[in-house]
Amino acid sequence: MLVHDTLSADKVELVPRELGKVALYICGPTVYDVPHVGHARSTLSFDAIRRALEWRGFDVIHVSNVT
Asked: Could you tell me the pTM of the whole model?
């Protein structure tokens, strides 16, 4: 699986620190007012990424916060 490396601005192969395991920490929405579809965007996007990683055989720990 290729990921975007912000340091080099290149696509690089995902190499987990521990073989077969990936951990995701996602800063979820900070909801100040009425919820809208934009608040769900990161949740849905990273859920799709988590599912893709699991489909490829990774054991995934996925943590997201809401403030």
From this structure: 0.79
